[in-house]
Every structure is written in structure tokens, then in C-alpha cells.
Design brief:
The complex is a heterodimer of chains A (about 140) and B (about 120). By secondary structure, chain A is an all-alpha fold. Chain A is about 75% helix and about 0% strand. In chain A, helix 1 (about 5-10) crosses helix 6 and helix 1 crosses helix 7. The radius of gyration of chain A is 15 Å and the shape is globular. Helix content of chain B is about 70%, strand content about 0%. Chain B is elongated. The two termini of chain B are about 20 Å apart. The model of chain B is unreliable at about 25-35 and about 95-100 (pLDDT under 50). Classes of the chains: A mainly alpha (about 140), B mainly alpha (about 120). The interface of A and B includes residues 75, 80 and 122 of A.
Chain lengths: ~140, ~120
């Protein structure tokens, strides 16, 4: 698995609070005028979904050149499905932000969020390859391109 | 007080049921009490019933007073919550508002991953 993908999984494994803190540091000041933290959180989830979708697309097209093992790919397919599901809980209500979602959708959103977080932590902890210090920098480049 | 071994037995049984359901999904039309005659797949009502029943069963294992590690409690909560959402997704299909096999399958696989985590301890 390439480092950018591991970076995405690292991001997904952060707590909600940490994610928001990180987003504060990477989004430009100009964005702050237009997006609340919740908007940015959703934007980040959409970007994660698209990034992982692209990784899996490349893997399917050219598996011989892919950095993904079959096991990695299977995991990413499931995580991508959960990201789509988590986004669904926002859109099903036609909500602008997480806080304007229905109580049921917020509950489902939070449950799925926790599930993604735990799966990613478990995945990262059990990897044979250690995480490198520069993953975060690579992740930022890949994630906000 | 539930021991880790007891918890593992419960989640192992759940995993076996999930495997059985998945395997039977379209291949055993003789199980008519569970099978929709037209589509030859498991009926929505049966699956909803199954998910909700198992959600209750797992919920009984979750209480914070249990003398087990937070990792296990967290995994049990994930399994319980995912079962509830799988049941909810059956409702979406029923109402025709939203359904995707890809999402259902993804969540299904993730439940099994969390079960695998508990079983591996």
C-alpha cells in the first residue's frame, strides 16, 4: 500500500476532535469565510472517498503495477463503502451541515464514523510496515491536490 | 459477568449465522420459510428480524461494568451499531428511497471484520 493511501487511513483513524483540529491547520483562511468546520469535515470525507476510489480504480486497471495487495484492496473497498454510507446520512436529509441532520441520521453517522475509525486503527496497528514520519506531508499533498 | 470466552462464543455464533445467510442467499430455494418465492433470495423481513434480534443479543454483552478490555467493548458496540444500521438499510429498500448492494455488502464485511477482531483476541 502506498504511503498516500496509508496517510488517508491515518486521517480517518483520527478522532473527530483531532480531525477538526487538523482541518483548521490545512484549510486556507479564505475557506473559513465560506465553510463551517462541519462543512469542511464533509468535504474531507468526500475527498477521502474520491481518493480511495481512484486508488482502487487504478488497482483494477493495472493490478500488476499496483501497490495494493488483494487484502489491502478488499479492505479499501469496504472502507470506501462506509464513506459513501456516511455521506448518505447527510444527503438523505438534504442537510447542509451535520447539525441540521435528523436525530436518526446523526446517530447513524456517528456510529459509522466510529466504525471507520476503529477499523482503520486496527488496520494500521496490525500492519507489518511501520508508519513513517513523512506520511502526513505526503497525505497533505495527495489529499488537497 | 461475561468472560471474554463467552463473548467470543456469542460473536462466533453470529459470524456463523452471517456466513450461512450469505451462502444461502440465492442458492437454497428449498428453505422456503426464509426465502422470497419470486426472487429466491432471503426475505427482507427475515433479515430485518435477524439483524434486530442479534443487535439485542450483542447489546446485552456491552455494559460498561464488564471486566473486559475497552477494545472488546468498542468492537461489540461497533457490531451492535452496524447490525442496527443493516436493519435500517432494509427499511430504505422497502421504502424505495435508497439502496445499494455495494454499501450493504461493505457494511456487512465490516461487521465481520470487527467480529474477526474479537475472535482473534
Amino acid at each position: 500500500m502506498d504511503e498516500a493511501t496509508i496517510g488517508i487511513l491515518s486521517f480517518l483513524s483520527l478522532s473527530n476532535k483531532d480531525k477538526l483540529g487538523m482541518l483548521d491547520t490545512v484549510f486556507s483562511q479564505a475557506s473559513d469565510q465560506y465553510f463551517t468546520k462541519d462543512d469542511r469535515l464533509f468535504l474531507s470525507i468526500v475527498k477521502c472517498d474520491k481518493f480511495l476510489g481512484r486508488v482502487l480504480h487504478d488497482h483494477r486497471l493495472e493490478p500488476e503495477f499496483s501497490a495494493l495487495s488483494d487484502e489491502d484492496a478488499s479492505f479499501l473497498v469496504d472502507i470506501t463503502a462506509l464513506l459513501k454510507l456516511i455521506l448518505h446520512f447527510k444527503f438523505i436529509d438534504g442537510a447542509d451541515t451535520v447539525w441540521s441532520m435528523s436525530e436518526t441520521s446523526i446517530s447513524c453517522f456517528n456510529r459509522m464514523w466510529k466504525l471507520i475509525q476503529n477499523l482503520c486503527i486496527d488496520w494500521l496497528v496490525n500492519r507489518s510496515e511501520p508508519l513513517t514520519p513523512d506520511i502526513q506531508a505526503i497525505f497533505n499533498d495527495a489529499y488537497f491536490d | 459477568m461475561k468472560s471474554l470466552q463467552n463473548i467470543q462464543k456469542v460473536v462466533s455464533r453470529l459470524d456463523c449465522s452471517l456466513v450461512e445467510i450469505q451462502a444461502r442467499g440465492s442458492s437454497e430455494p428449498d428453505r422456503s420459510y426464509l426465502i422470497d418465492e419470486d426472487s429466491q433470495t432471503f426475505t427482507r423481513d427475515y433479515l430485518q428480524y435477524f439483524f434486530l434480534k442479534e443487535e439485542d443479543r450483542i447489546n446485552d454483552l456491552v455494559p460498561s461494568s464488564l471486566n473486559i478490555s475497552p477494545d472488546v467493548t468498542s468492537a461489540l458496540a461497533d457490531i451492535r451499531d452496524s447490525l442496527a444500521i443493516l436493519a435500517e438499510m432494509r427499511t430504505w429498500k422497502q421504502s424505495g428511497t435508497f439502496w445499494s448492494d455495494e454499501l450493504f455488502q461493505g457494511l456487512w464485511n465490516c461487521v465481520r471484520r470487527r467480529i474477526g477482531f474479537v475472535r482473534s483476541l
